[in-house]
């Protein structure tokens, strides 16, 4: 049975405890914790806030399976800027992995943000491979997985497809570096969602499930966009996908996160029937 998780960036104007309370109330299996202020920014966790996270995990008996530190350009993006800026982002992500492991998460989720308009493909791949090698070496050392997420072409010009993941895994081959599919990137660029499973095989480790308007990176409540989500859910059942799937409502519903977190999981349950 696929496990359904709650993503927490939409709760950033609410107390962190609301996240755990609602995940428990609405029947989510786990939390994918967004790592940014005010809730779970890695340096704050290191300064002592990690204890708050651990207490909430124990109190509500809801695990944090994935830790997703914010690092798409504000202020960390390992794909753009000077070598010193790249190194700063790498150090931040190493710290994030430490914190992910300490809270009991199975993985830290990363993505490769925009490399800038003047950067050539050759430069992009060189920098991506170098950075992921450094991060993967560290992941192996602490025995904590990295899940790499392709973004939409609206967000990035680096890693945006299943093929990009396949290419990267050929260069950086490690059981501690795996891939995932957020179903919006393939859908908006007319790529096959299910091809991720064929191409990545055992490295297809995690999913983000939401709906889409078909023309942007906007993440819409499941069942309320144009993506054929019911059919996606049936296909996942057909291939017996038993992994994790986070309903990644980001900030479109920030005004009322609990209403939409509840509706999202109810919609997904109905679509799974």
Automatic annotation (TrEMBL):
It is an enzyme of class 5 (isomerase). Its EC number is 5.1.3.41. Keywords: Isomerase. It comes from Clostridium neuense. Residues 20-269 form the Xylose isomerase-like TIM barrel domain. This is Fructoselysine 3-epimerase. GO terms for molecular function: isomerase activity. It comes from the Bacteria. SUPFAM superfamilies: Xylose isomerase-like. InterPro entries: IolE/XylAMocC-like, Xyl_isomerase-like_sf, Xyl_isomerase-like_TIM-brl. Pfam families: AP_endonuc_2. Signal peptide: none annotated.
